[in-house]
Specification:
This protein is α/β, with parallel strands linked by helices and about 200 residues long. The protein has two domains: about 120 residues, HAD superfamily/HAD-like (Rossmann fold); about 60 residues, no CATH class. The protein has ten helices and seven strands. It has a five-stranded parallel beta sheet, sandwiched between helices. The protein has a two-stranded antiparallel sheet with strand order 2-3. β4, α6 and β5 form a beta-alpha-beta unit. The two termini are about 15 Å apart. The model has no long low-confidence stretch (mean pLDDT about 95).
């Protein structure tokens, strides 16, 4: 029986950076902060805890910037980041709308912290295109860990085999399959219907 819960990843699937080199491609010239330093001082030591909801993005970023870029506020950097990582794949969204009209329930299943999750859902308007958002910081677990998938099942009240994950990362697809879900890799080479059929 075909599952009717389609769990869609966000980054790399329906949302992409505005710049081919990523949202931070021009951050040094735009904001005067080193991309490498932001990676080493912020993302590498802190992202694991932030993405799982154990630390707040704004608070941690504010503290880090105080040391490495005191001219820059957390809000300015977050606004820059979110706005430059917000290009919607309208072609895929149209395909998703079509399967939604055929009876599928569309959920987001994504690795987000609280601030960007709210931006994606409310500001970018994904709340008009999807029924529910499940994200890592809210669940307290991240893909591809089994806990991520089990937490979502706890919310939907449906067995594993009723869930289909569409994701651009093979390790997340494999994690979903290990959890007993159906899953398909999204790389843009096939239509949504073709991925779901497989």
């Amino acid at each position: 029986m075909t599952p009717k819960l389609l769990m869609v990843d966000v980054d790399g699937v329906i949302v992409h950076p505005m710049h081919q080199g990523g949202w931070a491609a021009e951050i040094e010239s735009d904001l005067g902060i080193s991309r490498a330093e932001l990676q080493s001082e912020f993302f590498t030591p802190h992202w694991h805890e932030i993405i799982r909801g154990r630390a707040d993005l704004h608070e941690v970023l504010d503290d880090v910037l105080h040391h490495i870029a005191p001219h820059l506020s957390a809000k300015v950097l977050m606004d820059y980041w979110f706005s430059r990582d917000s290009r919607l794949d309208e072609a895929l969204l149209a395909q998703l709308a079509a399967v939604r009209s055929q009876g599928w329930t569309l959920h987001l299943a994504t690795l987000q912290e609280h601030h960007r999750a709210r931006y994606l859902w409310n500001t970018l308007g994904l709340n008009a295109r999807f029924d529910v958002m499940h994200y890592a910081a809210d669940l307290g677990a991240a893909k591809p860990d089994l806990e991520f998938f089990r937490a979502i099942e706890g919310r939907t009240g449906r067995p594993p085999e009723d869930h289909f994950l569409l994701d651009d990362r093979q390790n997340n697809v494999e994690g979903a399959l290990t959890a007993g879900w159906l899953a398909g890799l999204w790389d843009g080479s096939r239509t949504l219907a073709e991925v779901l059929a497989r």
